[in-house]
Amino acid sequence: MLRLGFRSLLPSPPLHADALRRRRREPGLPSREPRRRPGGRRGRRSGPGTVGKAPMRAVLSVEGPVERVARGDGREEEYDAIVIGSGIGGLVAATQLAVKGARVLVLEKYLIPGGSSGYYERDGFTFDVGSSVMFGFGDKGNLNLITQALAAVGCTMQVIPDPTTVHFHLPGGLSVLVHRNYNEFIRQLISKFPHEKEGILKFYSECWRIFNALNSLELKSLEEPIYLFGQFFKKPSECLTLAYYLPQNAGDIARKFIKDPQLLSFIDAECFIVSTVNALHTPMINASMVLCDRHFGGINYPVGGVGGIAKALANGLVEKGSKILYKAYATRIILEHGRAVGVRLSDGREFFAKTVISNATRWDTFGKLVKVDDLPEEEKNFQRIYVKAPSFLSIHMGVKDTVVPPNTDCHHFILEDDWANLEKPYGSIFLSIPTVLDSSLAPEGHHVFHIFTTSCMEDWKGLSHRDYEEKKELVANKIISRLENKLFRGLKSSIVLKEDQQKLANHICF
After folding, report:
1. Global pTM value
2. How far apart are CA 203 and CA 291, in angstroms?
């Protein structure tokens, strides 16, 4: 029987993986990939994640050394666990097991670790594959999950605090800068909407109530009944708070306190960054986690780029006696009597373990690695109900620094003319300029631009290679022109390097 055993009910950008466990069956639950329920008001974020910020499933709950046993057929178990993919979620699962004494094998199809939290280099520029907005590097509370994951393998990373989370450029000339300091942010928002002062304070106070409840718990797992039972007796009030808000969305709660349509649209934009859907489709717990942690732990950029997180975890994994195998393309999860027992690679090699953990997307895990005929009924039901959220077109550019005005913020969200375009393909633009924080990512006199915009994979299917490239160039040029008109005069003429590509929905989240 297949069991999803390493999942998150709350957003995290990178700390997520789906595990196929052998011990017992458990009803399937939605992963943190962005999903939209037709006609409903709930949404989930990726992602891609999309960083690092959610409680994760307790593969961490292995206590003491792991006992190695022989298989019933006489074939010795080579590993205690196999992890498919070396994204941050997979690496955290692997390292947490390794530090408890398990022997773990990580299978990575590329030459470097990280997945959508990886990096690549071109002509002296270092590009983050995915988001540059990094949560989880704080030094207090229980939600600093990247800090905790690195500490487990004896690693620390130098980070650069970002004084702002994002600069919103919105219809009607609305410009809102989300300061790291919460009081500064609230003062600025009230100055834009003085007639909604009370509503603003009440809505964000609700967010803090939820965040404080989460931050008070030792968030190892939200799926193990015994663990949750123990947490309830330790923190009954906090657990009841989370239970109350679990079925509620941010849009309905905002409307309890706020009436101004433009301010409600701003709340939609706040939630869109969290979940790629508006506030009415974003769970209140998900929204609160991000909208508060940006002020509590803050956004902190790792020196040298986001890819350093995966490299540090991979090195720590090896130092703990486990192994990561590169250029290892997994094509099939091996099942015996409905249980995951191993992994087959494209070159025919097979590896076996007591536990198989997939850090691939849910759709690749159930449908490619596991045959459709072998899916558990709860997974079939999930896939019938939920559909994929938008994908992203991602553009990486190297530009001359003369095009970037002094004191430009690192992260921007642009929606120029019409709030109705918020969720439409190519309607909004996400922009990160990580060299504003770390100039070592580009040659002297240059900046890195990383641009995202939502797109639909269906619009790109069936195109010839030539048509695909021409369409990609056309869309990219339109996006760049919009940035040039809105923020960066002369942007096109300043470009010295440009690469663009289509990315799957659940890999990237700003």
Report:
1. 0.81
2. 11
Closest to 54 measured CA to CA, from 275, 235, 229:
275
> Could you tell me which residues are beta bridge partners of residue 25?
none
For residues 397 and 27, what is the distance between their CA atoms, to the nearest angstrom?
44
For 171, 243, 401, the CA distances from 214, given in Å and listed in that order, are 34, 11, 41
Four-point Cα dihedral 271, 273, 274, 278, nearest 10: 30
Q: What is the DSSP letter of 134?
A: -
Asked whether the beta carbons of 319 and 153 are under 8 A apart, the reply is: yes
On the 0-12 / 13-18 / 19+ scale of CB atoms within 10 A, 271 is: buried
- Domains of the chain by start residue, with CATH: 18-158+304-387 (3.50.50.60), 183-298 (1.10.405), 390-507 (3.90.660.20)
* Tens digits of residue pLDDT in 75-111: 445 899 999 999 999 999 999 999 999 999 999 999 9
Closest to 427 in 3D by CA, of 101, 153, 170, 95: 170
Element (H, E) at 501: strand 495-503
